[in-house]
Amino acid sequence: MVRRVTSIRSSRPPWQVLALGAAILVLFIGGFIWLSASFRNSPSRPVKLPARGDQQIAPFGEDVLYYDGTWLRCVNGNGNERWNFQIGQEAGFHAGGSNVAVWAGDQLYILDKSGNTVYKERMGGMVQFARVGLQYVAACVGDFNASSVTMLTLDGSLADPEPLNFDRIAVQDIGFFGKSPEMMWVLCLDTTGTVLSCEIQVCEPGKSTFGSVTLGEQLIYRVYYHDGLLRVVDTRQIRSYPYDNLTAESTDNPSVLIYGWYLHALRQVGRDMAQLLVPTPQIDGRLTATDLRLLVGKTNRVLHLPATCLGAVLGSRGLYAFTQTTVYMCAYGSNVFTETTLPVQIVRVLGSTDNDRVLVTDMNNEVYLINLP
Questions:
Q1: Which residue from 320, 356, 368 is spatially nearest to 340, judged by alpha carbons?
Q2: pTM of this prediction?
Q3: Ranges of residues in the chain whose predicted pLDDT is under 50
Q4: Which residues pair with 174 in a beta bridge?
Q5: pLDDT tens across 79-127, in order?
């Protein structure tokens, strides 16, 4: 028996079949792009960290450091502990680059990125604080008005044979800048006169003081380095000084008036430095803002928020402002905010990591990491 097989051909002309296939392909690609954008613009499931909101917490690259009153602990972006280090009570820490400085009483430690101790020594006096750079660590030791600053390499070797001594001058802060060589600035407060006066000294490791400048009565609360200049921030203005000639302000970068604003965050954006200013925060650091000010290069803009926000950070793509339930994102160079619902209800923003994740606390004082959209 022979079975006849009949082939079935489409009744549509070939050009219609091709057109239909092309339309389906376009719809598929469009749907994929839409879904990708939706996932990208929505924070993923928040990661709950073992820290509490009232503990010392700081980003450390893509990880997070927190001090629970006895132990310094490092957790990764999944909330898993990478390492821990027992310090004891009334300790402090500062992270910079790939290292961490830890102090308690007169003891100073330098830890590497894996939590290993590379330096441990008593400093001959109470350690007020320490700061970590890319190549050096500086420790401020002594009393408020009679202190010294010791400079160390990251392995604990002395970078300078003699410490810098400050008599009747209070050391407020220390920072590092540059790379070859890395240099150090020291912010001081002179309390010997009838009025308080701020001063900055610039030092090169292994050499004497490079230069200094007296900056007057205005309270300085931030110093940073960008494009060959030290930027000095007080309650009224941002001034710029050549680091190798602190006797006069830079004529190419005139001061920027910021009265009524507070420098909240900095982030390198391409060749420019993004500077986020907020209305003066409350004493406990909490923020209530309806406007934010953003300086990027020569651009100086005030951005009006869609709602009153309780925190803000700078990400790699733009500015992020937070309410309890929403994050508003404004890309650099734009005036338009996009709105995304947060996966948890927050009460405070603590900072952000290098890979665009924000540290927040909720109403129960729990700490979460959330991806920025």
A1: 320
A2: 0.84
A3: 1-11, 15, 17, 19-20, 26-42
A4: 186
A5: 999 999 999 999 999 999 899 999 999 999 999 999 999 999 999 999 9
